[in-house]
Amino acid sequence: MLTTETRTHRVVMRAALVAAVAAVLLVLVAALVAGSAAALGAAVGGVVAVGVFAFGSLSVELVARLMPAASLLFALLTYTLQVVLMALVFVALNRSGLLGEELDGTWVGVAIILGAFVWMTAQILLATTARIPAFEPRASSPAEGGAR
Q1: 6-50: per-residue pLDDT in tens?
Q2: How far is CA 3 from the centre of its chain?
Q3: Which positions, given as ranges, span the membrane (predicted)?
Q4: Residue 4 confidence (pLDDT)
Q5: Is 11 exposed, middle or buried (0-12, 13-18, 19+ CB in 10 A)?
Q6: Coil, helix or strand for 103?
Q7: Which residues pair with 99 in a beta bridge?
Q8: Under a CB-based contact definition with an 8 Å cutoff, are residues 104 and 37 in contact?
Q9: pTM, whole model, 2 decimals?
């Protein structure tokens, strides 16, 4: 029995952890540099980035496990939906009046961009170094005549 599912799940969780740590560090920097509105903006941006990327990666992983033939199509669709979701979050924050008053929009954007780059870097590094089998091996069968 292979543990492919748990290995890819581990990659996603580690990438989320690394991105969350980067977001926390950015919140601290924002608080020191620009105050509480910047820190709150960085926190909101970090939560949005980690939440959107984690949901997207876990849903692509689930589809790849259940329907491998549809995984590429679903991955492309998920990417598109992630971009749309982040745009909708910005529109909602802007219309609510939180941007500018309680949240610093610049720090929200910086946190989302940092979260995206940290997530991608961590996921690429973890996925390329993980030992994830590309296929399921055949069940062992009795040796045929002359085979060792």
Answers
A1: 457 788 889 999 999 999 999 999 999 999 999 999 999 999 999
A2: 21
A3: 12-33, 39-60, 72-93, 105-128
A4: 45
A5: buried
A6: strand
A7: 103
A8: yes
A9: 0.79
